[in-house]
Design goal:
The complex is a heterodimer of chains A (360) and B (206). By secondary structure, chain A is mainly β. Chain A contains one helix and 24 strands. At the A-B interface, strand 2 and strand 3 of A face strand 1, strand 3 and strand 4 of B.
Chain lengths: 360, 206
């Protein structure tokens, strides 16, 4: 599923971006750069020095360079999230590396599924599960941003040469999102003329006296795949970020076995003694029961589980006898309730502990 | 006419070797080859080639100077593939400014041609060239004849010229302040009768 949406924004209210200072000052379009030559020399012993001021000159007019750069602020092109996580902010720095003020039309495309359905675009701020919205901000904080409606192709705000701002994609991950699910967000900024919704058109036919307009943007490659996601020299640029569900997938099992029947004339230390018999025994009153609780992490994304806590309330018909910690960090009993903790369980591993009790 | 043909041949030779020249020209000495490879005086900015003087009364009475500007573009084959020389360096061609697009970051090659058509040697030849605030000089890009001295001045002290390259601890060091450099002074002891030379250098538009 691929969604590409464009919404409108009230241009004047969207941004009054007095953005941070220019990273570097480039010569503005239409500036005339002149080089002229003066010449002096002597010719013959009795002749005065010959001087030719402005003996030759050449001039050119600086052309207009359109160079948009979009850079996702995400390590390795991916952001890890967990089911139900709200306000996941994907920030994209948009820079005007050209030499003239220009506007930008911002587009956000999504691909992939998180949860049962695709993420849904909202033109307004929302905390609804499975939705996302877009903001323009001079920082990476949503607190500084203004909602931008990408559903119509309008200028998100003029940006001076050398300045930048952020496009923020704010997503709310549904609680039913599963481990290793993902959604890709591709943000594209297209240069428009200043204070206009009209995309810039390249023009190289103005000659030496006129001002040419030249696209100087490089091609954009995916950080994750290396594939081209935006061509060079087209007045636009793109970058992408993946939302990746990285939740551990924990499964627990509990099995029981009778270690000793506790018949008259026999003794057995239920808390610590014995081993699992080779043939089944009867769970009669006085018998010693061993419960084995095992947890397994089946995370496809390789995500470890941390701070696992298991509680097990013993039935009224049996009495607590003891525990073995096994792979767990701690196992304690209080009032017939067993509490076991495990600090870390890597993906594709399991851990167990046991409880022993006597049938009343 | 022979002179024009010869000069055009020189230009063709220059086209194929100019990349290497730009890459390695770091010294002013030993640049006789650059003199031969630079475009001829007779090639005007618009590409028109004036006829050489043929009569005594047409011979100019003074040293002639021309200034041309070019951007550099990699030569492309008929198949549309970029052309490289035997060393793997791109073969660059000169594009007249009139046919060029110049945006920040682009380089412009200036070619100064000095011609002495008189019967007297010109001595203490001195050229003054502006360097606009919008551009930055590439001091290592100069090509010119033996004996050419290059000095620079800034805007605050426009009459105080200092060498672009100075000998420091036995090594030739570039000492010009490229941020404040606003003019160049090119000095040659002598330009013999009927001879010419070229000086080329690159600037980058800020």
């Amino acid at each position: 599923m691929f969604r590409q949406s464009i919404q409108s924004v009230a241009f004047g209210a969207a941004l009054t971006l007095s953005l941070s200072g220019a990273a570097f000052a480039q010569t503005a379009p239409n500036v005339l750069v002149t080089n002229s030559i003066d010449l002096t020399y002597n010719s013959g012993a009795d002749t005065p020095t010959v001087t030719q001021d402005d003996a030759a000159s050449v001039a050119f007019r600086v052309d207009r360079k359109i160079d948009v750069l979009v850079t996702a602020d995400a390590d390795n092109g991916s952001v890890s999230v967990v089911p139900g996580q709200e306000t996941v902010v994907l920030s994209f720095l948009v820079e005007n590396n050209g030499n003239d003020t220009q506007g930008l039309i911002v587009d956000v495309a999504t691909d992939g599924s998180v949860g049962a359905d695709d993420l849904t675009y909202s033109p307004t701020v929302t905390d609804a599960e499975g939705s996302y919205y877009v903001m323009i901000s001079d920082t990476t904080s949503v607190d500084d941003g203004v909602v931008y409606n990408v559903d119509t192709s309008l200028n998100a705000g003029d940006i001076a040469a050398g300045d930048d701002y952020y496009v923020l994609v704010v997503a709310n991950v549904p609680i039913d999102a599963a481990d290793a699910q993902f959604a890709d967000f591709v943000v594209t900024a297209l240069a428009t003329n200043a204070n206009s919704n009209t995309p810039v058109v390249q023009d190289r036919n103005q000659g030496l006296a006129g001002v040419n307009t030249v696209f100087a943007d490089a091609a954009s490659l995916s950080t994750r795949t290396g594939n081209q996601i935006n061509a060079a020299f087209n007045g636009s640029d793109s970058d992408e970020t993946r939302i990746l569900l990285t939740a551990p997938v924990i499964a627990a099992t509990k099995t029981a076995v009778v270690l000793h029947e506790g018949l008259p004339g026999t003794t057995f230390a239920c808390a610590t003694g014995g081993a699992v018999p080779s043939s089944p025994l009867a769970a009669i009153p006085g018998a010693c029961i061993q419960y084995t609780i095992t947890v397994t992490n089946n995370s496809d994304s390789g995500t470890a589980a941390t701070d696992i806590v298991i509680t097990d309330e013993l039935p009224d018909e049996i009495s607590y006898a003891g525990v073995t910690v096994g792979d767990f960090t701690t196992v304690t009993e209080s009032g017939g309730t067993i509490t076991a903790t495990l600090a870390n369980l890597p993906a594709d591993e399991d851990a167990s502990f046991t409880i022993r009790a006597i049938v009343d | 006419m022979i002179n024009r043909v010869f000069l055009r041949w020189l230009q063709a030779a220059a086209k194929t070797h100019f990349a290497a020249l730009l890459g390695h020209a770091g010294r002013i000495t030993g640049l006789i080859l650059a003199l031969a490879l630079a475009p001829a005086t007779s090639i005007a900015q618009d590409g028109a080639a004036p006829e050489p003087a043929t009569a005594a009364e047409d011979v100019p009475a003074a040293v002639q100077v021309t200034l041309e500007g070019f951007t550099l573009a990699q030569e492309v084959s008929e198949e549309g593939e970029p052309v490289f020389d035997d060393n793997g360096d791109p073969v660059m061609i000169r594009v007249p400014l009139a046919e060029s697009v110049v945006t920040p970051g682009d380089q412009v090659l200036y070619v100064i041609t000095l011609d002495n058509p008189t019967e007297e040697p010109a001595t203490d030849v001195q050229l003054g060239a502006q360097v606009a605030a919008e551009v930055e000089l590439d001091p290592f890009s100069f090509t010119g004849p033996d004996g050419l001295e290059i000095a620079w001045a800034d805007a605050e002290t426009p009459d105080v010229f200092r060498p672009v390259f100075e000998q420091i601890d036995g090594e030739e060091v570039m000492t010009a302040d490229l941020e404040t450099l606003r003019s160049l002074q090119l000095t040659l002891p002598e330009l013999a009768p009927t001879e010419q030379f070229n000086v080329t250098y690159l600037i980058t538009l800020r």
